[in-house]
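Record type: ASSEMBLY
Status: queued
Input:
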Amino acid sequence: MEKEKRNNLIMTFIAIALVYLVVFILELTLRPTSIVFTVLRKGAIYSLVAVSMNLLNGFTGLFSLGQAGFMLLGAYTYAILTIPTEVKQSDRVYRYYDAVINFDTGVFVALIAAGLVAAFFAFLIGLPVLRLKSDYLAIATLGFAEIIRAIFQWDVLGPLTNGANLLREFKDLSRITLPFSDIPFPPTLFVFIVAGVCILLVVLLINSSYGRAFKAIRDDEVAAEAMGINLFKHKEMSFVISSFFAGISGALLAMFQYTVQAQQFRTMLTYEILLIVVIGGIGSISGSCIASFLYIALSEWWLRGLDMGTFLGINAPELFRSGFRRLVFSVIIMIIVLFFSKGIMGDKEISFERMKHLFRKKRKAKGADA
Amino acid sequence: MEFFHQNLSYFLSGISVGGQYALIAIGYTMVYGILRLINFAHGDVFMCAGLMMVYLSSTLPFTITIPLVLLLTVLLGFVIERVAYMPLRSAPRMSVMISAIGVSYLLQNAALYFTGGLAKVYPEIPFLSNSIVIWDATTRVVTIVTPFLTVVLVILLTLLIKHTKIGMAMRAVSRDFETSQLMGIKINRVISTTFMIGSLLASVASLLYFTNYASVTPTSGAMPGLKAFVAAVFGGIGSIPGAVIGAFIIGICENIIKGGASIFGIPGSGWTTFSDAFTFAFLIVILVVKPTGLFGEKAVDKV
Amino acid sequence: MKNLLELEHVTMQFGGVVAVNDLSMHVDENEIVALIGPNGAGKTTAFNCITGVYEPSNGKISYDGKCIIANHPSGKMAKLYAGKEHEMYLGGKVLAPTPDEITKLGIARTFQNIRLFKSMNVFDNVLTAMHVRAKANLFSSVFRLSWKEEKEMRDATEKLLKEQNLWEMRAEEATSLPYGLQRRLEIARALATRPKLLLLDEPAAGMNPQETQELASFIKEIKERYGLTVLMIEHHMDLVMNISDRIYVLDFGSLIAEGTPEEVQSNQRVIDAYLGVAENV
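Status: finished
Output:
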């Protein structure tokens, strides 16, 4: 049994390595403006947020709706730290204000800082709110995300955040280089590596002693507490860690978009991520990742026609106009929520064992036919 | 007195907005009282009522449009409950909340599709849109009408809950869901009624609110909805008078902040962006100081 | 014999209802003590006070010679208070630990209506309860620096499950087990926190006479094997009379009798409480 487990683990690692290899090869061969890269990059970024939200909602049983706010914190922290000093001093970005942060850092430091800033705010919010019933957490985090958005557009903070204006010219994906050199780093691979490492950390956490404590809290708070698990401490831990990764994903999103503006991080974004988690299956990391890529591929690529007038060869500009895609999406999502509430994966993870099982079943069915 | 007189128009619009929030907040607080569900879609129902008014009034006279909008909103509330919440009655509470978020997402996207993302101009309703002058401050009739209408509706609602059979059933269900089911109360009817009352009040609120703001966008339900919810939490969720008082306080504070008084040396105009954020800062403060709100009861879990 | 748990004048009042009134009792090391009484007598409430789920309105609870919980009526309760010994603890310091702190001290419990971790299998249910004794911090736990400890925990879980005859079902969903085994698993999970004092809330509820008998020997066995002290709430009188060293009887929140099984059985007030007393008209 132990051996089989180890084999499965090795197989999983090989599969993941293959994915990375494919990404690398695609990056060498395809046109850099190809839609495939948009889907891959955004999909990886959304995977990371979805996983961070799943850690909270799916594994700890805390219903939090602050993801957009923490992403905003991460995105701004990253952008502010990596805008080169000479750009800050000129009026190319900070046209109406004098920038207060007068230094710039490298990508790696800024990414970590993005996570830490988000985590710090989560810590503060968590202090009062996590002692209450979980309903209050939903509404307080939703409220927090709104406050943060308003505060970042407030012109009193302009010297820091550039008010309601865009932040630009920071180290976005096109400016990533190999460490200590000027050789450009493949951007999609970069996103995959950062998101992958973060998701790996979440997986390690979930399978550790602390992860089991989180699950115990989700299953039964009273029993968990009676087993010596400090509810507040563990909830705070989960909340802070989840926000840390949401912050990093916000930074990645900023890198992907080349610009940052507080306006983008609306409640709608949080809803979207929550619904991705539901589609993937609450409590399944691999489900969240699959759902993210699927969702992004559908909305950015395969269903684009729904907004553009022509879909599957049907030309109906009256029906297929802007916004139709999202309408179709929300109907699909409602159907999933109501009738397939387990999502793609339920609370299971994708594994070779399960796939083998599935194949065997199919083969058996075939055998029975013959 | 000087401060009061200077800020009179902000004060008046604060009371007025407070009344509108109160009408929305009642929908939240009643649903929460019965289903323990934060109905995230409630603010969007309010927005839909506004859009219906825009579309219907372009062809029909107001005498028909207004009752029709009220009726359709009630119907919308009823349908949402039947389709999105009723099938999940025995599901975990998180699933129902997710369903509510799904409905909210659906309504907003539907509105986005039908309006094409443009702000729609709200029709001028005769009488309500007229301006009047009170104590040197010019304002619209709707500003004066709102608080009175709110109070009348709340009194009617309280009478309904206190003295009718369905009201009694509502109180029973909010006290203990399972037991009242065992006592033969038709749960689904009570819940539907609750949603219909909530939607009716939300549509009245939308008449008053959008007359003041003059335009409707797909997201214009989100903010008032959230603020009304904060009001409900402040009043003690589940308590109707609490929600009304909470809503008035939030409405007034918010407008004074918008209004002008310079606070902490930053002039009033600097705080305008901040007035939305105020409500949530307020929420966090409530949750720290008195999480059960003004009139809320502390629930003890049985072990 | 050493005094392990001691309750002094513990009163628990909810609004106007006094659920536990002036309860004083003690449990000595290596004893099996039963807390009995008719339904609604306040037994589970007393348990919840000891384990920190409720904060008693008045009184003091000591464990292993140290005061762990203490309170006196204050605020609204000062006016409402209807229990006894109102003045006794006034001005004293208030100690209100949370349930997990109590568990860390070495008091574990089971629940009247079984509360297992629903999504986990049998093995993980027990393994999760080991978390309280784990020394690894978040960092070393995530990066597997404490793999040694993790392995020890797994081994300990294996040992515990084998001892409880639950090893065969280790991979099954906890809630799919038959009722009697779920009870046993809940006890095993409580043992995983390495308690000195075990509180059992109606361990035989819903069991047939044969299962009850098995449970009696099971309780005795784990008591010997792990050097436990047991305090239990139970309705099955044969179980209680069979294994208890001493018995406390509660009625309407107050203690009405205490003593050995024989003493309690012949106590007139106990008989009245259980059978009802003929009223003098």
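Annotation: Chain B has one domain: 2-289.
Annotation: DSSP finds twelve helices and four strands in chain B.
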